[in-house]
Amino acid sequence: MSLLAALPAEFDPRPLPPDGLGPAEDEDGVLLLDLAGGDAPAAADAAARCSRLPLIAIVAPGTTEPPPFDCHTFLTAPVAPFVLARALAQAADHARLRREQVAARQELEELHAIGVRLTAERDTDALLDLILTKARAITRSDAGSIYVVEEPRGGPRHLRFTLAQNDSVQVPFTEFTLPINQESIAGHVALTGEIVQVDDAYDAPEGFPCRINREFDLQIGYRTKSMLVVPMRTPSGEVIGVLQLINGKRDAAIRFASGEAVEHGAIPYSPSARSLAASLASQAAVALENSRLYASIERLFEGFVQASVIAIESRDPTTSGHSFRVANLTVALAGAVDRADNGPLAAVRFSADQMREIRYASLLHDFGKVGVREEILVKAKKLHPWHLELIQQRGEIIKRGVQLRHARRKLDYLREHGAAGFSEAATAWDAELACALDEIASRLELVAQANEPLVLPGDRADRVPHLALPTFIDHLGEAQTLVTPEEAQILSIPRGSLTAEEFRQIQSHVTHTFQFLSQIPWTRALSRIPEIARSHHEKLDGSGYPLGKRAADIPVQSRMMTIADIFDALTASDRPYKAAIPVERALDILSREARLGSLDPSLLEIFIDIRPWTPHQT
Question: 452-461, pLDDT tens digit by residue?
Answer without folding.
Answer: 887 777 777 7
